[in-house]
Design a protein that fits this description.
The protein is an alpha+beta fold and 253 residues long. The chain has four helices and 15 strands. The strands form four sheets. A five-stranded antiparallel β-sheet has the order 8-7-9-14-15. Bound molecules: magnesium ion (MG).
């Protein structure tokens, strides 16, 4: 069942989203050569708590950290550890926040130091795919329009979309219905109506779309099957009568 939120509930999600946005900005600045992924995780947790929230991923399905950090061929669900970033790394950071009973979910991917042009092109295309998804996330459109927009952006650039993972409804729970595929046919699926709140999250691979799971201390990290790079961007949005409200935009609260 898709839970429709009241304007007051959306305001509360926006407050959670403002915390996530602030932390995302800090992480973007901090992802430099020499810093370890565990240090980024500590930064995220400290910032979330200082801003009054709690890390939404810590303990969720047993995840051991506050931040999912996925490097290079890792797509999502990477676990922070003692790996230090080096120039040229592609780093995806996924941040979940719970604040006063409501959730926000946002992610970004950055290149560390000087990265090859193809790395930057993958990152820029994935961010553009998220913008496309937000653009079509409007009342009267359908869920399939979102996936179609992401897929179109990816294929025009010669990249593939991850098909086994995607976005989701969000609200009092981090993961609610519906599942939001990053592929699909325009005009198909449930109609988007005001009050729907969705985490839109394109994941694009430089190579093929196939994925596999790799064990990391009992936790499954999702990687590209062909070892190619993967990038990930995410915003939590609310459907309105007009353009979608980006609840994890900086300064949204
Ligand atoms: Mg998400």
């Amino acid at each position: 069942m898709i839970v429709i939120k009241t304007p007051a509930e959306i305001d509360r999600m926006r407050a959670a989203g403002a915390i996530a946005a602030e932390v995302r900005e800090q992480l973007a600045m901090a992802a430099r050569p020499g810093v370890t992924t565990a240090e980024l995780d500590r930064l995220a947790e400290t910032s979330i708590r200082r801003l009054g929230g709690r890390p939404g991923f810590k303990g969720l399905y047993g995840f051991p950290a506050s931040l999912c950090i996925s490097l290079n061929r890792e797509i999502v669900h990477g676990v922070p550890g003692d790996r230090a970033l080096v120039a040229g790394d592609l780093v995806s950071m996924d941040i979940g926040v719970v604040y006063r009973g409501f959730c926000a979910d946002t992610a970004l991917t950055v290149a560390v130091g000087d990265a090859p042009p193809e790395t930057n092109r993958l990152i820029e295309t994935t961010e553009a795919a998220l913008a496309d998804a937000i653009e079509v996330c409007r009342a009267g459109n359908r869920l399939g329009d979102i996936g179609a927009a992401v897929e179109r952006r990816a294929s025009l650039a010669g990249f593939s979309v991850v098909r086994d993972f995607g976005g989701h409804g969000i609200g009092r729970k981090m993961h609610e219905e519906p599942w939001v595929a990053n592929f699909g046919a325009p005009g198909t699926g449930p109609e988007l109506v005001p009050g729907m709140t969705l985490a839109l999250e394109p994941m694009l691979n430089a190579g093929g779309s196939a994925v596999r799971a790799v064990d990391s201390g009992g936790w499954s990290v999702i990687v590209t099957a062909d070892g190619s790079l993967s990038a990930h961007f995410e915003h939590t949005v609310a459907v309105t009568d007009g353009a979608a409200l980006v609840l994890t935009a900086r300064g949204a609260a």
